[in-house]
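Appendix B, record 7
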Amino acid sequence: MTPALPSAESLTVEFKSDRKRLPDSDLVEAIVCLANAEGGALWLGVEDDGTPTGLHVDHRNLAGLAGLVAARTSPSLRVQVEPVQAAGLPVACITVPKAQTVVATVGGVYLRRRLKHDGTPECAPMLPHERESRAASLGLVDVSAQPVAGATLADLDPLERERLRQAVQHYGGDRVLLELDDEALDGALGLTARQPDGSRVPTLTGLLLVGRETSLRQWVPTHEFAFQVLAQQAVRFNEFRRFPLLKALDWLETNFRPYNPEDEIQVGLFRVPVPLVDMAAFREAVANALIHRDYHRLNAVHVRLEDDALVVSNPGGLVDGVTLANLLVTEPRPRNRALADAMKRVGVVERSGRGVDTIFRGMLKFGRPSPDYSRTDVHSVVVCLPTTPADMEFRRLVVQEERRRGGELPIDSLIALAALRELKRVTAEELAERIQRDAASAKRTLEALTEAGLVEAHGTTRGRSYTLSLTVYRAAGDKAGYTRQAGFTALQHEQMVLSYVRQHGQIKRAEVMELCRLSDGQAKKLLVRLRDEGQIIQHGERRGTYYTSGSKG
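Structure tokens (predicted):
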């Protein structure tokens, strides 16, 4: 399919005029620029304002253009070149893949495409720290495992080593670490790197975990974090620190607790706390921000309590391969692998690498909305944890079910119950989008909840939908809510069909299946009943059958 000429330039679209024959070096640099960002398309023979002016005569033969790009880039870029007619003029669409490494011209020029403050794109030089940052985001290098030039063992703080050992005990980390002396501990966690002469030098992980604060200021100037409390636009707390990470987590948690009030509910003989923000979710979100931030960027990790949410942000976007659409299911891809592994062994974060699940669980089990990552962009990861009032009856339901099972509800089940609480009725296809899995997985989750008595299924096969069960509605004191969802279904289907016919003049069986989420057989029975009652009139036979309004419709 021939690509269409876009109306304007963007992060992934570049226009290049060819009226005076664009030099090969300029063309290759523009392609490198796209490859070192998100890839995209370079349109040769188009002015900056999107007006096609055609290819120079020297570029009319496009056969060797892909080879020229491959020969003049390092490592070689494989582009696709396609001739296109735009406004009757020949232009070329050069499709540039997103590079899976850092690419340069053979002349050693590194460029990247970025958006300026006004939203327009530009090609900018790629500085050494930006090349390292991109390589880290692609998983090609681990800056946290590298020795820090100039640092010495004197930059490591014995008191922070003791804090690390206490953290292993407190968080239930790898107890083997407690049996090691300082040198062995440094080696086991990657806090130091052995040099060819046998000496040891602190790594970035070592300085971040057990470094002195003065040393962090000197050797890791990008490390900084802030805790802020904003109440109705007034600043109640606003402090920046450069503590090593374990001390940072202790300090942040200590300062956050006074702003995190708790309620309680009675479940059987036990009192269950209901905090404003689940502390496990708080700890995981903050630790993730400190661990996975881009330490090449000069900016702070912000932990900010606003009127309606706790917002945690860190410099550096999501690493390559992780998107908002696969956040729940993708394999862990830490930007700073050595640092992440050390924190897991200490026990601070999820050993499985599924910390996002902990954050989601800490929100959903209280009947609050899911964590919101929508403000995340290429420059930073931002997660908002809404502090809306908890649904006490929903929390009671979750606690009772988890005690019956003898373990936590799977995260997919929590998402399903939250979706049913919000939407009242869902299909497997609708849930699949929320749990970021296929419809078959979503259906298994819903059927398991049906067997547990928490959910009821309505309909069969393609039209099958699900609601919370009568038991759940009754426990919440909302018997009428159940009746509204399950009891009036047939009447609702009739009214939906009749309304559709009035609005559009006619309806077919396939349209009824789609409109009411019914199977083929259920749609047929509904149409036959309405026809026999005189509310609709049948026209045609078999596949050509359609229905219009009857005398009683």
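Remarks on this record: The chain has 20 helices and 22 strands. The longest strand covers residues 89-96.
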